[in-house]
Design goal:
404 residues, alpha/beta, UDP-n-acetylglucosamine1-carboxyvinyl-transferase, Chain, four-stranded mixed beta sheet, 12 helices, 31% helix, 23% strand, globular
């Protein structure tokens, strides 16, 4: 399907949404379980393409492994491959081969890894040999790089003969994702300490643990957006926990200011409309995957918005800042960097009778972040299948809330 027409849908049907399981939790659980010798059972594993790709590649014994467009899979498998009994070549899509991985590769090579770039230096594809000798047990890495680099190092640390002490330099971005990794490692029997910007993990073994993956808070964020923008809406999102390992639970507090109240119940959370604030400011360093969703909501509701912590958006599936600027402009919404690292949203949005087409740039979050605009006007989404990366049932769930 090349594009998807979303009809104008101002009122949402009151219903329950059985969200997909968390991709972030699923991917970490798969790596940790594989490092433990697959001793555990993982329940409620995500159906996201990224997770299914990870699961498939962990079971394969071939030399060449194709991660497609799964950035988490590429980064986690780069570190994981050091502990396999064969040389492994990791490759991916054309876009994946333009996503940087040098910081992680440099860190692994300092530990003693032998990794060769098969194309442009600093980017996949990679040829990785098994780790023979650990050269050092202490590393420094920038704290504001992708947290996936840091999580990749943390998850292999117990397998290193001398363990690992990791010093995070400067501001630490996406901190909840790092904490999620450590919390999950703890559940699987690994002891860690995080003091100031230093994480210490001694050599030890992962234990078996029956892990149940929570529903995905990143996926939940789009339903907060639907409720915020609709004229009438009340939805229940199933499988979410008030005490979550996922940093994107921050959407609860964010959307409380943008017009959505959350009430937790035993099996999920109920979303209802409330009055929104006229101005909003937020640092997305810890939850960058929410930025596109919030940008759209603020633009459509004409909430003056200041956003910081967007640096990592430039190295995602696409340059998300460029993509946001282009697509928001179609709705008379401006995203502008007013000073270094500070972005402001100003809006002259009015619902249009013109059918506007949203390009998605091979980015699942672009499709889902803009879809809730259908509560204000009809629109077209190009390449709607991109949602399969993280939320395969998204369009089915959109149909569930439709009253047409």
């Amino acid at each position: 399907m090349k594009n998807k027409l979303l009809a104008h849908q101002p009122i949402l049907k009151r219903t329950e949404i059985a969200l997909e399981a968390s991709k972030s939790e699923s991917n970490r659980a798969l790596i940790i379980n594989a490092l433990s010798g697959n001793k555990s059972v993982i329940y409620n594993l995500s159906n996201a393409r990224d997770t299914q790709t990870m699961r498939t590649l962990l079971e394969r014994k071939e030399e060449v492994l194709d991660v497609l467009d799964a950035g988490t899979t590429m980064r986690f498998l780069t570190a994981f491959s050091l502990f396999q009994d064969r040389v492994i070549t990791l490759t991916g899509t054309e876009r994946m081969q333009k996503r940087p991985i040098k910081i992680l590769v440099d860190a692994l090579c300092k530990l003693g890894a032998k990794i060769k770039y098969l194309g442009e230096e600093g980017f996949p594809p990679l040829r990785i040999k098994p780790l023979d000798v650990q050269k050092r047990n202490e590393l420094k890495i920038k704290g504001d790089v992708s947290s996936q680099y840091i999580s990749a190092l943390l998850m292999i640390a117990p397998h290193l003969k001398e363990g690992l002490t990791l010093h995070l330099k400067g501001k630490v971005g996406s901190q909840p994702y790092i904490q999620m990794t450590l919390d999950m490692m703890k559940l699987f029997g690994v002891t860690t300490t995080w003091t100031n910007n230093t994480i210490e993990i001694p050599p030890q073994s992962y234990l078996s643990y029956p892990y149940v993956v929570e529903s995905d808070w990143s996926g939940a964020s789009y339903w907060f957006s639907f409720v915020a923008l609709a004229e009438q809406a009340e939805l229940k999102l199933l499988g979410l926990r008030q005490k979550s390992l996922q940093g994107d639970i921050a959407i609860v507090q964010i959307m409380n200011q943008l017009g959505v109240m959350s009430t937790f119940e035993e099996n999920g959370v109920v979303l209802k409309k409330i009055t929104h604030k006229d101005e909003f400011e937020y640092d997305f360093s810890d939850c960058p995957d929410l930025a596109q969703t919030v940008a759209v909501v603020c633009g459509i509701k004409k909430i003056r918005c200041r956003m910081t912590g967007l640096e990592s958006l430039k190295i995602k599936e696409t340059d998300r800042i460029k993509a946001l600027k282009r697509e928001l402009k179609k709705f008379k919404i401006k995203l502008k960097e007013v000073e270094e690292g500070v972005w402001e949203i100003t809006s002259k949005y009015e619902p249009s009778q013109e059918l506007i087409t949203v390009d998605t740039y091979e980015d699942h979050r672009m499709a889902m972040a803009f879809a809730p605009i259908a509560t204000k006007q009809a629109l077209m989404i190009n390449d709607p299948a991109v949602v399969n990366k993280s939320y395969p049932s998204f369009w089915e769930h959109v149909e569930l809330v439709s009253t047409n």
